[in-house]
Amino acid sequence: MDVSGGSGQPRSGSEEPAEHHAGRAAPAADPARPGPAPSGDTHPEPARREPGGPASAGSAPEGAPAGDGVPAGAEDRRGEPSGNGEPSGTNRPDPAGGFPGADAPPAGHGPGDRTPAPSPHATAGPERERGENTGRATEGTDGTDGRPGHAPGGDTTRPAPAVAPGPPPQRPPEPGGGLLMGRPFGVPVYVAPSWFLVAALITWVFGGQLDRVLPELGAARYLVSLFFAVAFYASVLVHELAHTLAALRFKLPVRRIQLQFFGGVSEIEKEAETPGREFVLAFVGPLLSLVLAGVFYLALQTVEPGTVPGVLLAGLMISNLIVAAFNLLPGLPLDGGRMLRAVVWKITGKPMTGTVAAAWVGRALAVSVLIGLPLLTQSGALGSDAVDNVGMDTVMDALLAAILAAIIWTGAGNSLRMARLREHLPDLRARTLTRRAVPVESDTPLSEALRRANAAGARALVVVDAEGSPLSIVREAAIVGVPEHRRPWVAVSGLAQDLTDGMRVSAELAGEELLDVLRATPATEYLVVEETGAIYGVLSAADVERAFVKAMARPSA
């Protein structure tokens, strides 16, 4: 079952949407929210580094003031009234307290520094261009009269768009998993490359048996053996289709079916909602294998024994019985393990308890297979003479047992990890992970946009039109690539990625539903909106990944 995750810095504070204004947005007297810029030729104080505040502004052109940065500690002054009667800085203060596009003070400097250390990448999340956040910094205006966009010497040319930062992130191709054989019931069926290896092995082994039973076939026995290998895996496909149909019946999405070295896998993307459905979902596969064994047995009664059809039907009957019996063993990741999980879930009311029980039974089963299978073959309990089971046969039996045990042990561990992931997925909420954003118009210089963001305690920029409707998101990776001395003459429009429908995320999404939306449209940033369509902020894939890793590191309840 596939789930994806990500990392990031969750935000604290109340969950009131970030405000934006129509027209040319600029900072107001309230430093905690965006507003109109100071008019006239007043020279603001140079930015200062304070405990918990951002770094000072970058270099400015010759003759320009040191910077217009406003200390970003304003968002920490909770409860102070602002100009409109609302508390200043209590909307959704960001833990980092500034925009992560420039230099940052070292971690741990000042009481307001709450930037966590970088964490490893998670495997289930959307791809992103940059896997790190560079902290927080203040970008001052670099104009000669306190207004951004003024070149030295009084040249008042408007800022030019930046050099194109590269094409926007493209959606990666959907992983196939082998050779596509078809789409029964709309679910793709793939044959993994390892299947050809096991088909050759079955052809060789079954061909040797045919040589003893039907020596008159000669070299044609290998054609018959190849037909048996294909027919056997067709039976495995029917087994997997039973799981798939049950999942679709319960409204559970199935990503694909894959035939591989040791059988097949139906990749069901969501968990059954009740233990009863989980039991049915697991039981239908072995049940259909038993039905197929019965069908082959009935067909065997209509042919002569010792003939090619008789040998093929007998082999298919026995192989389906073995598949059903093996899958009914009560340990994950086998079907019997899922049935045991459903029973424990029903008794305790806790799906995680059922998973833990079935997974540990699966691990015990793996050890039993590793030790017991070679002993059984050596003792002749599997139908062969114990005297003959020496030399190469012993090595092959031990190798087969080791492979089976490794598959069962690994599958049990993966089941535990997936259960822990699903248990912690509800902790991933778009509303709590979203960065506060500042709306800016397309021709706003990057230095001015960063100054407004730091003044408001925001860490994201959204490009809006004259009516305040969002058009694009300024990408963090593109901001980092612009040198500080160029930022007063680079317009934010040159660093922005146009919004698509998939990049608009509801603030109410959480857990697996949130990850499904992010997987559907891979990007580095997403616009988070309220149900009314108002801008709430920007969700970074990096933040989701880090929160995912953090949640997975916590012990299960």
UniProtKB/TrEMBL annotation:
Region of interest: Disordered: 1-179
InterPro entries reported for this sequence: CBS_dom, CBS_dom_sf, Peptidase_M50
Pfam families listed in its UniProt record: CBS, Peptidase_M50
Keyword Zinc included in the entry's annotation: yes
Database matches in Gene3D superfamilies: CBS-domain
Record's compositionally biased regions (Low complexity): 52-73, 93-107
Cofactors, names only: Zn(2+)
Basic and acidic residues bias spans: 13-22, 42-51
Chief site of localization: membrane
Keywords, in A-Z order: CBS domain, Hydrolase, Membrane, Metal-binding, Metalloprotease, Protease, Transmembrane, Transmembrane helix, Zinc
Domain CBS intervals: 433-492
Membrane topology: Multi-pass membrane protein
Domain of life of the organism encoding this protein: Bacteria
TM spans (from-to): 187-206, 226-248, 279-300, 312-334, 355-375, 395-412
Localization, UniProt: Membrane
Family the UniProt entry places it in: Belongs to the peptidase M50B family.
Designated name of the protein: Peptidase
Organism: Streptomyces leeuwenhoekii
